[in-house]
Amino acid sequence: MTVRISIDCMGGDHGPSVTVPASLAFVKQQHDAHLLLVGREDAIRAELRKLGAEQHPQLSIVNATEVVEMDDTLEVALRRKRDRCGSRSSR
Is pTM beyond 0.70 here? Predict the structure, then answer.
């Protein structure tokens, strides 16, 4: 059975430079996992390229053109940023 997990790759203090390598390390240990890397596709692809994992079979990218920033109000995050990380299922 494959377990699917979504990862907000734009989150944290350092974004994809931390979340993408951590995701890759996770799938190397968990052969039954498939990760959906959510965020700005170009930034995620750049990190995967650095790591030589552009075509990793356990990783997929879900592009989100907008990112909820730390200083965004709740109203901005929920009402104005419609293509944000995590918004796919709410459309």
Answer: yes
